[in-house]
Specification:
Elements: E1 4-15, E2 24-35, E3 39-43, H1 50-57, E4 65-70, E5 73-74, H2 79-84, E6 86-89, H3 101-111, H4 121-127, H5 143-154, E7 161-165, H6 173-188, E8 192-197, H7 200-206, E9 209-214, E10 217-223, H8 224-232, E11 235-240, H9 249-252, E12 257-260, E13 263-267, H10 275-284, E14 289-294, H11 299-307
Parallel strand pairs: 3-8, 3-9, 6-7, 7-8
Antiparallel strand pairs: 1-2, 1-4, 4-5, 9-10, 11-13, 11-14, 12-13
The structure holds adenosine-5'-diphosphate.
Adenosine-5'-diphosphate binds next to strand 2 and helix 1.
């Protein structure tokens, strides 16, 4: 049995520019170890390189350098074994409109060489609550139903690893809860889960370990609880142009201390006193910010703070 579900070493990707367009460096040497049985979050802003990483694992994008192993199988040396051990739920809802969910799962199972007596079409449709739509044309399914169908499709060959690329993009709260319940159930049954997101909240709610990737590099990778603790220990200092005699009411909820007539200090936490919330309160108080600093000017934390608030993302 393998110890690590996924091992990525020095992974690089350069997308060649078409005609005169410049090349695009998407991954600059990524190292990631995803232990078997984990619920792993790949967190980063748009354009960070999350999908590129996932697509290399899925065999949809060719890497430029480095290596990736899935369940111990190198994606280039043992592509079939590697692919057999991973199911990927893509970001886009691409469908053949004239297939029904049942047909789609059967075709996919056929592509993976799953013998008919081992297929679990009914069970999978039931698990994603689409049994009543089994024979409806996929063009008649709602966005949420399509996404659930994609999860079922990624699971037809019963892979030990399930990767979800931005699974809740455009999904309402109720459906999100349902999706997560199913993903948690799969995880409880032993499936290693990897998901990409640009929301800290989402990664925080689900994942035991979070890697942050930005500009094609891993900025940090650690247990979720350690990461959150680190954020909560931050202090942010804001200087404003206006001279103040007290704390403006708009800022009171965040309990800043006045360090001087123009300077506040805030104790950040990842739930309420986030960078985004503080900045909007300062702006609501109609103050002009002249300087912002943290006790450790750590860009990754600022990034985390910003991504922790969905309305600010
Ligand atoms: P993320 O999933 O984190 O949003 P991506 O992996 O999609 O990031 O993109 C990483 C970078 O690579 C971005 O700058 C993006 O514009 C670029 N990129 C992604 N796909 C292509 C492509 N097919 N051709 C050229 N550049 C691409």
């Amino acid at each position: 049995m393998v110890e690590n579900a996924i091992e990525i070493r020095g992974l690089e990707k350069i997308y060649k520019g078409l005609k005169d367009a410049p090349d695009k460096v998407a991954l600059k040497g990524i190292d990631l170890t995803i232990p078997r049985g984990s619920m792993f979050g790949l967190l980063g802003p748009n354009g960070a390189g999350k999908s590129t990483t996932i697509n290399i694992l899925a065999g949809l994008v060719n890497k430029t350098a480095g290596s990736a192993k899935i369940w111990g199988f190198d994606t280039v040396e043992k592509p079939r074994n590697a692919r057999a051990n991973i199911g990927v739920v893509p970001q886009e809802l691409l469908f053949d409109a004239f297939f029904t969910p049942r047909e789609m799962l059967e075709v996919q199972a056929g592509m993976y060489g799953v013998p008919e007596h081992e297929r679990r079409t009914e069970e999978l449709l039931d698990a994603v609550q689409l049994l009543d739509k089994a024979d409806a044309y996929s063009r008649t399914l709602s966005g949420g139903m399509k996404r659930r169908l994609l999860i079922a499709k990624a699971m037809v060959h019963n892979p030990p690893i399930l990767v979800l690329d931005e699974p809740t993009a455009g999904v309402d709260i109720e459906l999100r809860q349902m999706l997560w319940a199913y993903v948690r159930e799969l995880h409880a049954r032993g499936t290693t889960i990897v998901l990409t997101t640009h929301y800290l909240e989402e990664a925080e709610e689900l994942c035991d370990t979070i890697a942050i990737i930005n500009h094609g590099e891993v900025v940090c990778c650690e247990p979720t609880s350690d990461l959150l603790k680190r954020i909560d220990e931050k202090e942010m200092i804001i200087e404003v142009a206006e001279a103040l005699s007290g704390i403006p009411p708009e800022l009171a909820a965040y309990q800043p201390t006045l360090k001087g007539p123009n300077t506040f200090a805030f104790h950040l936490n990842h739930k309420t006193t986030t960078v985004a919330n503080v900045l909007s309160a300062v702006s609501a108080a109609q103050l002009t910010i002249t300087d912002i600093s943290t006790n450790e000017t750590d860009l990754e934390d600022i990034f985390l703070q910003l991504t922790s608030n969905k309305s600010a993302a």
